[in-house]
Amino acid sequence: MNHMTEIVTRISGVNPRKCMKCGKCTAACPAYDEMDYHPHQFVDMVETGRLEELMNSRGIYMCLSCFACLERCPRSVEPAKLIEAVRLAVVRQQGRNHLKPEQIPALLDPDLPQQAITSAFRKYRK
Amino acid sequence: MQKIGVFVCWCGSNIAATVDVQAVSDALAREPGVVFSTNYQYMCSQAGQDMIQEKIRELGLTGVVVCSCSPRMHEATFRKACEKAGLNPYMVEIANIREQCSWIHKDKLSGTEKAVLLGKAAVAKVHLNTPLTAGESPVTKRALVIGGGIAGIQTALDIAEAGFPVDIVEKKPTIGGKMTQIDKTFPTLDCAACILTPKMVDAAQNENINILSYSEVEAVKGFVGNFTVTIRRKARFVDETKCTGCGLCTEKCPQKKVPNEFNLGLDTRRAIYIPFAQAVPKAAAIDPNYCTMLKTGKCGVCSKVCTVGAIDYQQKDELLEREYGAIVAATGFEPISMDKFDEFAYSQSPDVVTSLEFERLMNAAGPTGGTLLRPSDGTHPHTLVFVQCVGSRCDGGEKGKPYCSKICCMYTAKHAMLTREKYPDTEVYVFYIDVRTPGKNFDEFYRRAVEEYGVHYVKGMVGKVVPENGKLKVQASDLLGGQQLHIDADMVVLAAAVEPDKSARPLATMLTASMDTNDFFTEAHPKLRPVESPTAGVFLSGACQGPKDIPETVAQAGAAAAKVIGLLSKDRLTCNPCVARSDELMCNGCSACEKVCPYGAITYIDKEFRGPNRTTLLRRVAQVNPAVCQGCGACTVACPSGAMDLQGFSNAQIMAEVDAICK
Amino acid sequence: MQVNETFKPTVVAFCCNWCSYAGADLAGTNRLQYPADVKIIRIPCSCRLNPLFILRAFQRGADGVILCGCHPGDCHYTTGNYYARRRMTLLFSMLDYLGIERERTRVEWVSAAEGAKFAETMNDFVETVTRLGENRRLEDLRCKSE
Fold first, then answer.
1. Is residue B541 within 8 Å of residue B523, measured between CB atoms?
2. Which of B383, B385, B363 is nearest to B267 (CA)?
3. pTM across the whole model
């Protein structure tokens, strides 16, 4: 297990090896069309250590944290938690934020769901 | 003091090459209690055995130690030889100086030293051996089969064929089980009723088989060969012996709104009913929950129309007590409830059905007469979505089952194929995680569904189903295509996981048969004794042991029958005398042993003991049933007072061996 | 610590009748060498092993005791080795408390087909015990003969 995978699995408390690749998370995901990588791919990428790609992807910020995947997953893999952990891992890289806190108001879309805003704010709390 | 004879074997050069056999026999001759010690080229040969027998007779030996090969090899040989010479066979001990000494050591000095120690340990053990006699118990030559599905029927037929009487206890008013509800069977697509109903008739007509339908097992007592079972015959309010099954009452009954369980509630039946046309026994039963006469005392239509006077509103449950030598559990399975799977909208739309419901919708004797129609509006569906693994292979217990239900891949392929065959205008999608088709002609069958019938197999899962304007909006993932699919379906069919029948758990408690965490019966050995329960005399048939398809169920049913026949063909059972024994005077009645016994061999009784000053004392003490105990010894260690001991491997014997080795 | 070259430990191996004893037989049939210091006692199942037997062995001068049973899930009596596993875990913590080196006791699962594993295990165990030297902590010198 490489270093980043370990960090992400530790933050999330999720064991990506439990995934049996059924794709129910992806089937349940309401933000599917917005994402470059999809929930089942997140899990696979964490497991195989392709975290660099995942951390640089826009898809992780498209996740609404609606927890549909977590609710539906038959194996309790909980992809939503993994995504939150990946976001945190991005934040914790010192000086590597690709967004500045000042930019947030400009990006705010009134139609954006509340949870997404909360989720985004959490990213900048540290 | 025992008079022990020691016989050291050379085993040609197998032992003699690395162990100085003369030195061993000389050393052991000096052990206390040893009155004779010798060595010989081949102890297991006729001449060797003769020598042992001769010495037993000549010197009146009370114990024999043979230093030779592994006891797994020749213990039985030497025991038998000694028995012929009048010595109790359990007074013989083997010191393993071949496999565990001469063959693994090259140095003659250390080999000899070790052989002497092993011999000493065996001598020390024999000092504490007591003559054991194998107990015997009679066998009641009748079998009980619990559950009248295809597993139970097949087991009963096979046992009856061998000439033993069998009772089938079935909780429903008819035998037949789940297979009666199935339309076609994979992979041959022959109709289930055509192959099952003749077997049901065979069972009914076989004079060795007695069908106790609409009955349940209430209590089980006894042990292998000698079970006493109490069976509750539920009141069916119809005299089974008089009823001809003409069905007139089921047409005239005014209570029409009873959900028909045979069609899984997809249509209704009357309060007096015959479950289905080919029911065995073909006799009506009154459903007391719906019958107006039984509930309010006002009606009685059925008794008026019955020409043979079979209706009896006064009938009561009857308790029947019978003796059996063997019990077969064949309680079968049920599909799990879909309550916890709201994402598939099962409770919101009647067009979302389980596979078993779909089976009824396709069946010529089903609620639609075999025409596939949507339950909601009776129209012909054009797009069907099948979802596999609903509730199977789930982690985390509560929601689903951790195991693969095994049959779903095949019956889903069958449903998809039959749908496409009968209605070529339909589009059929099957969502799968893995397609598992390991069976004879199974994979060919699945490939045929894809290649010849054009069923769309999609790797992925359905995430949600939303009923909207008479359609079912299905959102699913296509993992290989890398897209999210949105399908407007007319019907969604859920391949629900199977679980053991609810009656299995209380039955297992009655039988003291063990179960796994999923409530499937555990087999005595997962590989070598797959149709026996660890509890002696209890056998397993069909899906109560694990998910199974029909061919496997029938095979297991036959295997269980063979085991039952093997048991019943014996007049008396000889028990292994190396079983646990409880010293009643030391037992403090704590039940620790009872809890660890995997066979339920230990029971507690209240026994009167003489106390001081002519008083009597009632104490709770453990009793081991030697016919049931298998001699593992788990109880001996659990016992805090040291009352429980294992004959043949007693605490004192093992300690003596330890002492001999460590000195 | 100086290792005594001539020290021959006394090692008691309790083997369940169905798997490990047969595994030991297989090791013999295949002529796989292991030290003669190992003496095997046959018990019907690993759950027959009363922890007291191990204490008794140490008391009488054993330097190491090993219990071999069927692999978890393969017990002839279905659940015996699970009982054994729990009991041994408790015993081990007690031996720790008494100051007996943890390496002097061991539980191994050896199936009837694992003759090689049996020999390897015994070689390794005897080596460990030899390195630890004589076990005196529990030994009851009154029991010593000669």
1. no
2. B363
3. 0.77
Do A54 and A42 contact (CB within 8 A), yes or no? yes
Structural domains for chain A: 3-124 (1.10.1060)
In the block, residue with structure tokens 């010595």:
B87
As beta bridge partners, residue B89 has none
Q: What is the pLDDT of residues A15-29, one digit of tens each?
A: 999 999 999 999 999
- Is B567 contained in some domain? no
Facing B637 at nearest CB: one of C34, C36, C47: C47
pLDDT digits 0-9 by tens, A33-47: 999 999 999 999 998
Look up residue B509 and give its amino acid. T
Distance CA B297, CA B286 (A): 14
Structure tokens at B564: 């039952």
Q: Is residue B386 a contact partner of residue B432, using CB atoms and an 8 Å limit? A: no
Q: Is residue B507 part of a domain?
A: no
Indicate the SS3 state at residue A58. Answer: coil
Min Cα–Cα distance to chain B from C144, Å: 7
Nearest to A4 by CA among A40, A65, A53: A53
Picking from A23, A38, A76, the nearest residue to B395 by CB comes out as: A76
For residue B368 the two structure tokens come to: 């639609």
Q: Which of C51, C80, C145 sits opposite B634 (nearest CB)?
A: C80
Q: What percent of chain A has pLDDT over 70?
A: 75
Burial environment of residue B502 by CB neighbours within 10 A (0 to 12, 13 to 18, 19 or more): exposed
Domain check: are B220 and B118 in the same one? no
Number of domains in chain B: 4
Hey, is the C-beta of C50 within 8 angstroms of any chain B C-beta? yes
Domain co-membership, B430 together with B403: yes
> Could you give the C-alpha distances from B416 to B86, B130, B211, B471, B588, in angstroms and in order?
72, 68, 37, 19, 64
Residue B346 in tokens: 């099962």
Q: Looking at the domain assignment, is residue B510 inside a domain? A: no
Same domain, yes or no, for B312 and B217?
Answer: yes
Chain A contact set for B460 (CB, 8 A): 22-23, 26-27
CA angle B61, B67, B69 (to 5 degrees): 130
Beta bridge partners of B322: B229
Q: What are phi and psi of B375, to 5 degrees?
A: -60, -30
Where residue B589 sits, what CATH number does that domain have? 3.30.70.3270
